[in-house]
Amino acid sequence: MKVVSVNISLQKGTVKQPVEEINLYEKGVLGDAHSGNWHRMVSLLGTESFRKFEKDAGRQLAYGEFAENITTEGMILYEMAPFDQLHLGDTVLEVTQIGKKCHGSGCAIYNEVGNCVMPKEGIFARVLNGGVVKAGDLITYHPKVFRVMVITLSDRASSGEYEDLSGPEIQKQLIPFFELNRWQVNFEAQLIPDDPEQLKKLLTKAKTEKFDMVFTTGGTGIGPRDFTPEVAKEFLDKEIPGIMEAIRLKYGIEKPNALLSRGVAGLMGETFVYVLPGSLRAIKEYMGEILKTLRHLLFMLNGIDNH
């Protein structure tokens, strides 16, 4: 993949003009109207989208005509996903949004061109590492790979008395979520006895190695070997109590025993931690609710306000 044009405009909603080079800094493109402290500071559009639109429009289009800062060639950009990275030499961009809302006749580009391909096929990014970009520069694509640790705590399962079903079920529930968002994921599964010291070591590992998520299953009751919530809370920097309270209330109305679970959720550094019960049925219930908010939480954590 390579850069075929770099473009700047002084006002939002107008076409951009090709320039010899652009300077990317922490707020976007120096001198461009879209630079600022937000998640859409740099826009990109592929010539693959240009060619399709030229055919529909019946005329040749100029680079920058759809207000893209960087025109690329060699990859279908809109098939990427948020948090993927594009490296242009030492310059690093992080994808933050695919497409945008079209403003129709309220946009100068729409009025001048007659339509706009950016809302469907353009992508937006923020600058992680600045530098100069110009036509001809090569681009390498680095998809985001989420790292998820799943920890099952069970004396009997870890000793081989029975098969661990809860840990694999968590992974099973998560896979469609990542696939739907076009995100790659690597799981690390751990099966340990009900041992607080072993749990602490794994949580320390997850925090040090910057895992994106940790899910534990087991040890949320009130028995003498149930300690998972207490250990997890020692590592949390921010607790997210609402999700677990809502789950307990939802299922506790019909099954009062569900109110006795002491599951917790929160943030450990930049790692989400979910402490779930040990039963297979509970895993399905809890994951069904957790997945409804997980995408939004990931964007919140990364400072992306695209909702």
Per-chain topology:
Blueprint: E1 2-8, E2 17-19, E3 21-25, E4 28-29, E5 42-46, H1 47-57, E6 70-73, E7 85-88, E8 91-98, H2 108-113, H3 118-121, E9 123-129, E10 131-134, E11 140-142, E12 145-153, H4 155-158, H5 166-180, E13 184-192, H6 196-208, E14 213-217, H7 228-235, E15 238-239, H8 241-252, E16 264-268, E17 271-276, H9 280-301
Parallel strand pairs: 5-6, 12-13, 12-14, 14-17
Antiparallel strand pairs: 1-2, 1-6, 3-4, 3-10, 5-9, 7-8, 7-11, 8-9, 15-16, 16-17
What does the model show?
The chain is α+β, with helices and mostly antiparallel strands and 307 residues long. It has two domains: 2-142, PK beta-barrel domain-like (M1 Pyruvate Kinase, Domain 3), CATH 2.40.33.20; 145-301, MoaB/Mog-like domain (Molybdenum Cofactor Biosythetic Enzyme, Chain A). Helix content is 31%, strand content 29%. It contains nine helices and 17 strands. The chain has helices spanning 47-57, 108-113, 118-121, 155-158, 166-180, 196-208, 228-235, 241-252, 280-301; strands spanning 2-8, 17-19, 21-25, 28-29, 42-46, 70-73, 85-88, 91-98, 123-129, 131-134, 140-142, 145-153, 184-192, 213-217, 238-239, 264-268, 271-276. The protein has an eight-stranded mixed sheet. It has a six-stranded mixed sheet with strand order 13-12-14-17-16-15, sandwiched between helices. The protein has a three-stranded antiparallel sheet with strand order 4-3-10, with no helix packed on it. The chain starts with a strand and ends in a 6-residue tail after the last helix.
